[in-house]
Amino acid sequence: MPHFEFVKSSYSSGNGECVEVARNLPHTVAVRDSKRPDGPLLVLAPAAWDTFTADLRRQP
Fold first, then answer.
1. How far apart are CA 44 and CA 31, in angstroms?
2. Half-sphere exposure of 50 (CA within 13 A, CB side)
3. Which residues is 21 bridged to in the sheet?
4. Is the pTM above the cut of 0.90?
């Protein structure tokens, strides 16, 4: 199992409802809910993550 180093979103409001992202491994981006650190992970290719975040930045 890879070792992911998660960081909280810069948009985190401190209310405990955060998304954490790990980008420390090549070819892998992992996303998890900070309330469930041992819960499921969403694992993506970096290109998919980049497309997703680019789409978010385009939202009003």
1. 8
2. 5
3. 7, 31
4. no
